[in-house]
Design a protein that fits this description.
The chain has helices at 3-30, 38-63, 69-103, 120-167. The protein is an all-alpha fold and 168 residues long.
């Protein structure tokens, strides 16, 4: 495996670990085991922990592709950037501004920044995850399909070459 391949693999593992950590925190929060402020801190911190490894994973994937497959992985990088910007903006604001204000009893001063249904940062979070899903559709699935097609064509070429040799 190339250096970029190893970086991408390790970044993917890191993103997966952060995602599992997020899932565990989410379950504990819904089950009532975690309460404010630790629940919100862990939710947004684990979410933030997904961003950088995910970006590195997608950049590595792009660099391992050739030809037309790079069109799709480049589109995926655009959506990855959207995910990183919208997600990070939300998570950092929650961790550094909203939660500390709530702890100081000043929640009203930052109410407009709080991630609540139909708020600006709730929409940022939604846009981040819509962009992440688009990465799957524009980057990962087409790259895998191109690889399968390439392997299939290569196999067909080998089969045709064998038939030509045996009929000569």
């Amino acid at each position: 495996m190339s250096t970029i391949g190893r970086i991408g693999f390790r970044a993917g593992v890191g993103a997966a670990i952060a995602t599992v950590a997020y899932d565990v925190v989410q379950v504990l929060q819904v089950a009532g085991v975690l309460h404010f402020p630790i629940d919100e801190i862990l939710i947004f911190a684990t979410s933030l922990g997904i961003v950088v490894p995910f970006v590195l994973e997608m950049v590595a994937l792009h660099h391992t592709r050739v030809g037309d497959a790079r069109f799709w992985t480049r589109a995926g990088l655009v959506f990855t950037t959207m995910y990183a910007v919208f997600g990070s903006a939300n998570y950092v604001v929650q961790l550094t501004t909203v939660i500390p204000a709530k702890l100081r009893g000043e929640a009203e001063t930052v109410r407009v920044l709080e991630q609540t249904p139909h708020s600006l940062l709730w929409d940022f979070d939604a846009l981040a995850y819509i962009a992440m899903r688009r990465v799957l559709l524009s980057d990962v699935l087409p790259a895998a399909a191109v690889r399968r097609l390439s392997v299939g064509l290569h196999g067909a070429d080998v089969h045709v070459a064998r038939r030509v040799r045996t009929s000569s």
